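Q: Aminotransferase class I/II-fold pyridoxal phosphate-dependent enzyme, please. Structure only.
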Amino acid sequence: MERTVRDWSLALDPASALNLPAQIAAGVRRDVGAGTLRPGEPMPSSRALAQTLGVSRGTVEAAYDQLVAEGYLLSRPRSGMLVNPRLRATVPAPREGAGQSRAEDPAPGTDLDLVPGHDSNSPLVDPAWRSAWRRAADTERLPDQRTIDPTGDPVLRRAVAEHLRLMRGLLVDPAQVVVTAGSREGLALLLAGLVADGRSGPLRVGVEDPGFPGLRRTLARLGVATVPLPVDGSGLVVPTADDVPGVVLVTPNHQYPYGSAMPATRRTELLDWASTTGTLVVEDDYDSEFRYVGSPPPALYGLSPGAPVVHLATFSAVLSRDVGTGYLLLPESLVGPVTRIRQDLGCPVAPILQRAVAHYLDDGGLRRRLQRSRRRLAATHRLVAEVLERIPGAVDQGRMLVVERPPEVAAAVLAGCAERGLLLGDLADGWSGTPHSTGVVLGYGAVDEAPLARGLTILEDVLATTPDPVAPTHRRSDIPETL
Ligand SMILES: Cc1ncc(COP(=O)(O)O)c(C=O)c1O
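A: Structure for Aminotransferase class I/II-fold pyridoxal phosphate-dependent enzyme:
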C-alpha cells in the first residue's frame, strides 16, 4: 500500500530564521537523507501538505520547486510529486532499528535496475544451486569454527583453483587462493595485507581514469590516496613518470566503462614496467568468463612468472551478486601477511555458503550457468546492436551500452529514465576528477531479453524527447580512440 502524508511529519518552527518554504525543503532533505522518505515514494500533493501544515499552497509549491531543481523530488505528469528514485544510490542506508528498507531494496516504482554491477543481481534460481545448498546444509560436517581456515574453506579454494585451470588455463596452488566477499572486500583485505607487510610510505593506488567507481570508492573509504591514470583504446596507458604509485588497479580484459581488452604488447609492457619499478599490479578480473565470443585473453597473473600481480576476482558477475563471494589469487610473498589479517578479523563469508559455492563449481553448475549466460548474452547483444544503429554517440562494449551526451542532457536522461522506472549508471561517475565524457551507462550482462527490450525502449524514448543542443552525430569523447 502506498504511504500517505500521515506517515510523514514535519514540525515547522515559527521562531526559525528560515522562512517556511526553506523549512519544508530542509525537512524533506533531512528525511530523504535519513531514509524516512524513501526514493520513489509519492509525496503528498501541495494542497494536502499545505492543509496538514497549516500553510498556503504557494508555500509548499515554492519548497517543492526548489527540491525538484535540486534533484530531491521529481514531478510526474499524472502521478504528481515523488522522491527521486535515483537518490537510491546516494542516500545513506537507514540506521538499524529505524524500521526502513535496506538501501538496496528496489524503490517502489523502480523495477528495472540496469546500473552496471546491479544488473548482475539476477537470482540464482537453478536446480544445481539448490542441490549444492542442500548438500552443504544437510549432509556435510563443516569445519569447527575454531579450526576454520581463515583464508577460506579448503574445499572452495581447491574448487577455485580447478575453475581457474579449466576456464583460464591458470595452474595455481590453492594455498595462494584467499576467499573474499567480492572484489571490494578483496581489495580492502589486500590493502590491509600490504600495510601489514610494511610497504614503505603511505599507500598510493593508481586507478584507471575512467574506471570502475565501486573500487575507487572502496579505496577512498579506506583513506588510500588514488592516482588517476589515463586509458586509451588499449586499456591502461603504462605510466612513464618517475613518481609511480606502489600499486595499480587495472581491468585488462574488459576495461570499465569502454570495454577494451588490453593487447598482448601492452600487457608485457605493463608487467615489465611493474617489475622494474616494484609496482604491484592488481588485476580486476570481474567478468572474463562471461565472454560470449572466443575465449578470454590470458590473465596477467599467469603471464610472466614472478611478476608482481594479484588477481582480484568475484562471482558477482558470473554467478550472482546474491552470493557475495569472490577470491584473491596472491603472489607467494603476500600469502603470509593476508592470512594474518584474516586470522585476526575472520573471513566474512559464511562457511556454509563457501561450501555451497564449492559444490556448485565442482558439480559443473557454474560451467552450465555460464553456457546459458553466454547464449543469453548473444541474444541481448543482438538487441543492443539494433538499437545502436538508431542512437548516435552510443557504444556497445559487450556487457554495457554507453551513450555519451553533454552533462545537462545526461542528467535529464538519467532523471527521465528514472521517472519511468529505469535506473542507469552515470558515465561521469567513472572519472576521478572532472569527467572528460558524460552520458549514461546501461549494464545488460545478466538481463533477460524481455526486460532489456523494455529498458532499451524507455532509453530510446527518453533520448528522443530530451532536448539536446548539440547534434549527437558521431560525438565521442577523446578517450577510447581505437574502440
Ligand atoms: C570493473 C568491476 N570490478 C568489480 C566488480 C564487482 O565488484 P563486487 O564483487 O565488489 O560486487 C564489478 C561489478 O560490476 C565491476 O564492474
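A: Brief note, in case it's useful. Residues 116-117, 182-184, 212, 214-215, 251, 256, 284, 286, 314, 316-317, 321, 326 surround pyridoxal-5'-phosphate (CB under 6 Å).
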